[in-house]
Protein backbone atom coordinates (compact mmCIF):
# COMPACT_ATOMS: atom_id res chain seq x y z
CA UNK A 1 0.00 0.00 0.00
CA UNK A 2 1.39 3.40 -0.96
CA UNK A 3 1.64 6.32 1.46
CA UNK A 4 1.20 9.84 0.09
CA UNK A 5 4.10 12.25 0.53
CA UNK A 6 1.72 15.20 0.57
CA UNK A 7 2.85 17.33 3.51
CA UNK A 8 5.65 14.92 4.42
CA UNK A 9 9.00 15.98 5.87
CA UNK A 10 12.27 14.07 5.67
CA UNK A 11 14.38 15.27 8.59
CA UNK A 12 17.63 13.63 7.47
CA UNK A 13 18.94 14.11 3.92
CA UNK A 14 22.39 14.74 2.45
CA UNK A 15 23.03 16.96 -0.55
CA UNK A 16 25.79 18.48 -2.65
CA UNK A 17 28.09 20.29 -2.31
CA UNK A 18 29.91 17.80 -0.09
CA UNK A 19 33.24 16.01 0.17
CA UNK A 20 31.73 13.05 -1.67
CA UNK A 21 29.42 12.92 -4.67
CA UNK A 22 25.77 13.23 -3.76
CA UNK A 23 22.47 12.42 -5.45
CA UNK A 24 21.57 16.07 -5.99
CA UNK A 25 22.37 19.66 -5.15
CA UNK A 26 20.12 21.47 -2.68
CA UNK A 27 18.03 23.26 -5.30
CA UNK A 28 17.46 20.21 -7.49
CA UNK A 29 16.37 18.09 -4.52
CA UNK A 30 14.10 20.84 -3.25
CA UNK A 31 12.34 20.98 -6.61
CA UNK A 32 11.91 17.21 -6.56
CA UNK A 33 10.39 17.37 -3.08
CA UNK A 34 8.08 20.22 -4.07
CA UNK A 35 6.85 18.29 -7.10
CA UNK A 36 6.02 15.38 -4.79
CA UNK A 37 3.98 17.66 -2.52
CA UNK A 38 6.36 17.42 0.42
CA UNK A 39 6.34 19.99 3.22
CA UNK A 40 10.08 20.04 3.71
CA UNK A 41 13.54 18.50 3.98
CA UNK A 42 16.15 18.95 6.71
CA UNK A 43 19.58 19.09 5.06
CA UNK A 44 22.52 17.62 6.96
CA UNK A 45 26.24 17.87 6.28
CA UNK A 46 28.92 16.20 8.35
CA UNK A 47 31.43 18.92 7.48
CA UNK A 48 29.80 22.36 7.14
CA UNK A 49 26.71 24.12 8.52
CA UNK A 50 23.69 23.85 6.23
CA UNK A 51 21.90 26.78 7.83
CA UNK A 52 22.19 29.78 5.54
CA UNK A 53 22.71 27.89 2.33
CA UNK A 54 19.17 26.54 2.51
CA UNK A 55 17.89 30.14 2.65
CA UNK A 56 19.27 30.72 -0.84
CA UNK A 57 17.25 27.79 -2.15
CA UNK A 58 14.08 28.84 -0.36
CA UNK A 59 14.42 32.34 -1.80
CA UNK A 60 14.86 30.94 -5.29
CA UNK A 61 11.79 28.72 -4.85
CA UNK A 62 9.69 31.40 -3.22
CA UNK A 63 8.75 29.13 -0.31
CA UNK A 64 10.36 27.62 2.78
CA UNK A 65 11.06 24.02 1.85
CA UNK A 66 14.58 23.33 3.10
CA UNK A 67 15.76 23.60 6.70
CA UNK A 68 19.29 23.44 8.03
CA UNK A 69 21.46 23.17 11.07
CA UNK A 70 24.99 22.38 12.16
CA UNK A 71 26.87 19.15 12.90
CA UNK A 72 29.57 19.44 15.53
CA UNK A 73 32.53 17.78 13.87
CA UNK A 74 36.00 19.15 13.04
CA UNK A 75 34.75 21.58 10.40
CA UNK A 76 32.76 23.55 12.96
CA UNK A 77 35.22 23.27 15.83
CA UNK A 78 33.76 20.21 17.51
CA UNK A 79 31.74 20.90 20.65
CA UNK A 80 31.64 24.60 19.86
CA UNK A 81 28.83 26.51 21.60
CA UNK A 82 29.58 29.67 19.62
CA UNK A 83 29.11 27.82 16.33
CA UNK A 84 25.81 26.54 17.72
CA UNK A 85 24.73 30.01 18.80
CA UNK A 86 25.46 31.47 15.37
CA UNK A 87 23.68 28.64 13.54
CA UNK A 88 20.58 28.99 15.70
CA UNK A 89 20.61 32.78 15.42
CA UNK A 90 20.63 32.32 11.63
CA UNK A 91 17.53 30.15 11.85
CA UNK A 92 18.97 26.67 12.24
CA UNK A 93 16.41 24.08 13.31
CA UNK A 94 18.74 21.32 14.52
CA UNK A 95 22.14 20.80 16.11
CA UNK A 96 23.71 17.40 15.57
CA UNK A 97 26.19 16.16 18.14
CA UNK A 98 29.42 14.75 16.65
CA UNK A 99 29.06 12.10 13.98
CA UNK A 100 32.28 10.80 12.39
CA UNK A 101 34.34 12.71 14.96
CA UNK A 102 32.55 11.18 17.91
CA UNK A 103 34.75 8.80 19.86
CA UNK A 104 32.10 6.11 19.48
CA UNK A 105 32.03 6.16 15.68
CA UNK A 106 35.68 7.03 15.10
CA UNK A 107 36.88 4.05 17.15
CA UNK A 108 34.63 1.68 15.23
CA UNK A 109 35.87 2.99 11.90
CA UNK A 110 39.52 2.84 12.93
CA UNK A 111 39.11 -0.74 14.14
CA UNK A 112 37.72 -1.57 10.71
CA UNK A 113 40.82 -0.05 9.11
CA UNK A 114 39.18 3.12 7.76
CA UNK A 115 40.83 6.54 7.83
CA UNK A 116 37.86 8.56 6.54
CA UNK A 117 34.07 8.61 6.59
CA UNK A 118 32.12 10.02 3.63
CA UNK A 119 35.19 12.01 2.64
CA UNK A 120 35.95 13.43 6.07
CA UNK A 121 39.21 12.56 7.80
CA UNK A 122 38.65 10.50 10.91
CA UNK A 123 40.12 11.86 14.16
CA UNK A 124 43.01 10.21 15.92
CA UNK A 125 42.62 8.95 19.49
CA UNK A 126 43.74 12.34 20.83
CA UNK A 127 41.24 14.24 18.67
CA UNK A 128 38.01 12.24 18.96
CA UNK A 129 35.09 13.86 20.72
CA UNK A 130 33.04 12.71 23.70
CA UNK A 131 29.99 14.61 24.94
CA UNK A 132 29.65 13.02 28.39
CA UNK A 133 31.74 11.10 30.93
CA UNK A 134 30.45 8.87 33.70
CA UNK A 135 26.88 9.92 32.97
CA UNK A 136 27.53 13.67 33.16
CA UNK A 137 27.65 16.08 30.24
CA UNK A 138 30.83 17.97 29.50
CA UNK A 139 30.56 21.69 30.16
CA UNK A 140 30.46 22.43 26.42
CA UNK A 141 27.72 19.88 25.83
CA UNK A 142 25.72 21.30 28.69
CA UNK A 143 25.94 24.78 27.18
CA UNK A 144 24.85 23.41 23.81
CA UNK A 145 21.78 21.77 25.35
CA UNK A 146 20.88 25.08 26.99
CA UNK A 147 21.20 26.90 23.66
CA UNK A 148 18.98 24.37 21.90
CA UNK A 149 16.35 24.82 24.61
CA UNK A 150 16.64 28.62 24.49
CA UNK A 151 16.14 28.79 20.71
CA UNK A 152 13.44 26.12 20.58
CA UNK A 153 15.53 23.97 18.23
CA UNK A 154 16.16 20.21 18.16
CA UNK A 155 19.25 18.39 19.40
CA UNK A 156 20.24 15.38 17.31
CA UNK A 157 22.33 12.74 19.06
CA UNK A 158 24.57 12.20 16.03
CA UNK A 159 26.82 9.15 16.27
CA UNK A 160 27.69 9.25 19.97
CA UNK A 161 27.60 6.11 22.09
CA UNK A 162 24.67 4.65 24.01
CA UNK A 163 25.75 5.88 27.46
CA UNK A 164 26.28 9.36 26.05
CA UNK A 165 22.85 9.30 24.39
CA UNK A 166 21.27 8.42 27.74
CA UNK A 167 23.05 11.32 29.46
CA UNK A 168 22.06 13.75 26.70
CA UNK A 169 18.40 12.70 26.74
CA UNK A 170 18.24 13.02 30.52
CA UNK A 171 19.71 16.53 30.34
CA UNK A 172 17.30 17.54 27.58
CA UNK A 173 14.37 16.27 29.62
CA UNK A 174 15.56 18.28 32.61
CA UNK A 175 16.03 21.49 30.61
CA UNK A 176 13.12 21.33 28.21
CA UNK A 177 15.10 20.75 25.01
CA UNK A 178 13.68 18.64 22.19
CA UNK A 179 15.95 15.72 21.31
CA UNK A 180 15.97 13.43 18.28
CA UNK A 181 17.77 10.10 18.66
CA UNK A 182 19.35 9.71 15.25
CA UNK A 183 19.03 6.30 13.53
CA UNK A 184 19.03 4.14 16.69
CA UNK A 185 19.36 0.99 14.57
CA UNK A 186 22.36 2.20 12.52
CA UNK A 187 25.47 0.01 12.76
CA UNK A 188 27.45 2.75 14.56
CA UNK A 189 24.69 3.78 16.94
CA UNK A 190 22.77 0.59 17.72
CA UNK A 191 20.38 0.85 20.67
CA UNK A 192 18.16 -1.91 22.00
CA UNK A 193 14.42 -1.38 21.72
CA UNK A 194 14.23 -1.45 25.52
CA UNK A 195 16.69 1.45 25.66
CA UNK A 196 14.68 3.29 23.02
CA UNK A 197 11.54 2.82 25.10
CA UNK A 198 13.30 4.32 28.12
CA UNK A 199 14.55 7.30 26.10
CA UNK A 200 11.09 7.89 24.64
CA UNK A 201 9.58 7.86 28.13
CA UNK A 202 11.89 10.80 28.89
CA UNK A 203 10.57 12.71 25.88
CA UNK A 204 13.02 11.77 23.13
CA UNK A 205 11.89 11.01 19.57
CA UNK A 206 13.32 8.02 17.67
CA UNK A 207 14.39 8.57 14.06
CA UNK A 208 14.14 5.38 11.96
CA UNK A 209 16.08 5.72 8.72
CA UNK A 210 15.92 3.82 5.46
CA UNK A 211 19.70 3.94 5.07
CA UNK A 212 20.17 2.16 8.38
CA UNK A 213 18.01 -0.69 7.10
CA UNK A 214 20.07 -0.81 3.89
CA UNK A 215 23.51 -0.68 5.51
CA UNK A 216 23.26 -2.44 8.87
CA UNK A 217 23.59 -6.20 9.06
CA UNK A 218 20.62 -7.80 10.82
CA UNK A 219 18.46 -4.70 10.59
CA UNK A 220 15.08 -4.81 8.81
CA UNK A 221 11.81 -2.97 8.38
CA UNK A 222 10.29 -5.61 10.66
CA UNK A 223 12.51 -4.29 13.49
CA UNK A 224 11.30 -0.77 12.68
CA UNK A 225 7.70 -1.98 12.88
CA UNK A 226 8.37 -3.66 16.23
CA UNK A 227 10.05 -0.55 17.61
CA UNK A 228 7.18 1.71 16.52
CA UNK A 229 4.73 -0.59 18.29
CA UNK A 230 6.76 -0.74 21.51
CA UNK A 231 8.05 2.83 21.67
CA UNK A 232 4.75 4.31 20.51
CA UNK A 233 4.19 6.25 17.28
CA UNK A 234 3.90 9.51 19.21
CA UNK A 235 7.65 9.25 19.85
CA UNK A 236 8.78 8.01 16.43
CA UNK A 237 9.33 9.33 12.92
CA UNK A 238 10.61 7.97 9.62
CA UNK A 239 13.42 9.53 7.58
CA UNK A 240 15.80 8.35 4.89
CA UNK A 241 19.39 9.53 5.59
CA UNK A 242 19.56 9.34 1.78
CA UNK A 243 21.42 11.48 -0.70
CA UNK A 244 24.02 8.91 -1.69
CA UNK A 245 24.49 8.60 -5.44
CA UNK A 246 21.46 6.71 -6.73
CA UNK A 247 19.46 7.25 -3.53
CA UNK A 248 16.73 9.85 -3.97
CA UNK A 249 15.40 10.99 -0.59
CA UNK A 250 12.02 11.69 -2.17
CA UNK A 251 11.56 8.34 -3.89
CA UNK A 252 13.29 6.69 -0.96
CA UNK A 253 10.92 8.08 1.64
CA UNK A 254 7.91 6.88 -0.35
CA UNK A 255 9.44 3.42 -0.74
CA UNK A 256 10.46 3.21 2.93
CA UNK A 257 7.00 4.23 4.09
CA UNK A 258 5.45 1.56 1.88
CA UNK A 259 7.80 -1.10 3.26
CA UNK A 260 6.97 -0.16 6.85
CA UNK A 261 3.27 -0.49 6.05
CA UNK A 262 3.95 -3.89 4.50
CA UNK A 263 5.76 -4.85 7.74
CA UNK A 264 2.55 -4.32 9.68
CA UNK A 265 2.36 -0.67 10.73
CA UNK A 266 -1.03 0.82 9.78
CA UNK A 267 -0.90 3.23 6.85
CA UNK A 268 -2.52 5.93 8.97
CA UNK A 269 0.27 5.59 11.53
CA UNK A 270 2.99 5.70 8.88
CA UNK A 271 1.39 8.84 7.55
CA UNK A 272 1.81 10.38 10.99
CA UNK A 273 5.45 9.27 11.11
CA UNK A 274 6.37 11.02 7.86
CA UNK A 275 4.18 14.09 8.28
CA UNK A 276 2.77 14.90 11.72
CA UNK A 277 5.69 13.91 13.95
CA UNK A 278 8.41 15.83 12.05
CA UNK A 279 6.16 18.86 11.61
CA UNK A 280 5.47 18.92 15.35
CA UNK A 281 9.07 18.31 16.40
CA UNK A 282 10.55 20.97 14.13
CA UNK A 283 7.74 23.46 14.63
CA UNK A 284 6.87 23.72 10.96
TrEMBL record:
Pfam families: DUF6282. Gene3D superfamilies: Metal-dependent hydrolases. InterPro entries: DUF6282, Metal_Hydrolase. This is DUF6282 family protein.
Amino acid sequence: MSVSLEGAVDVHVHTAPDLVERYAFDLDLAREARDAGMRGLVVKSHVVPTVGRVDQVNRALGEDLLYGGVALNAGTGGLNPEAVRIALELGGRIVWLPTAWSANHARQERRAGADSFVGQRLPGPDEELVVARDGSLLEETSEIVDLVAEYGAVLGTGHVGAEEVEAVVAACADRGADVLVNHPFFRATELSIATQESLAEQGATMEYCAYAVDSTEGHSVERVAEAVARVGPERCLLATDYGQVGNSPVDGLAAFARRVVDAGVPASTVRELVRDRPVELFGL
